[in-house]
Amino acid sequence: MATIGVFDSGVGGLSVLREIRHLLPSADLLYVADSGHAPYGERSAAFIAARVDTIATFFHQAGVTAIVVACNTASAVAAHSLRARFDLPVVAIEPAIKPAAQRTRSGVIGVLATPRTLRSPGIARLVDAHGRGVRVLMQACPGWVEQVERGELGGERTEAMVARAIQPLLAQGADTLVLGCTHFPLLRDVIARLAGPNVELIDPAPAVARELARRLADAPAGVGRVGTERFWTTGPIAQARAVIPALWGRPAPILEWPA
Question: Does residue 258 surpass a pLDDT of 80?
Fold first, then answer.
């Protein structure tokens, strides 16, 4: 039976975990929210690589059959090293520039992400490969990750942050916005309302879940079995026990790191 380790710099990767659970209902899911070190977008590459190594080692010792890097920044920095080190599927995430470039009608897309993700060579590679003939606008979104970590998915402060980030993109004709951080789909309702009905939001999480399912196609299906979930956090445990079940949509066992 598949046991999948999923991690993010915080609770944002729950947006990916939801898609995985939808496609793989019988799998057991382990999730680490590295909230004590969020946001990764403001950390050095060496720091991020060390955190990724620590969490992946924990998953490997727990006997997972696959690892999902549910963080754009961590994927850009360390996914290649995980694939070299561990002999199991490692599925990473990246901003969905390709589908956004294919679906834009105005020829202008906006990429919403953390500063480090926007500076990463991976973004430049994606734009070079898929952004030809399309204007790609990069927009850092300071404060968004912290709002999601606190569970503040609405309200005046959150809406003001979102508006400041997306209004310049809309003013330049962007009709497609890439949610380039796994925390951002958790703000989807606010973003969609402020962007308006003519702007499409692109979330790569469903594609990540599909790729994982493809990589695990040979695993026992476990028909009729209900998979389990276990959560760990490196941040304040009381906050995690309030925020994670609210975002996940049901009660969940949450442990402090280390387990």
Answer: no
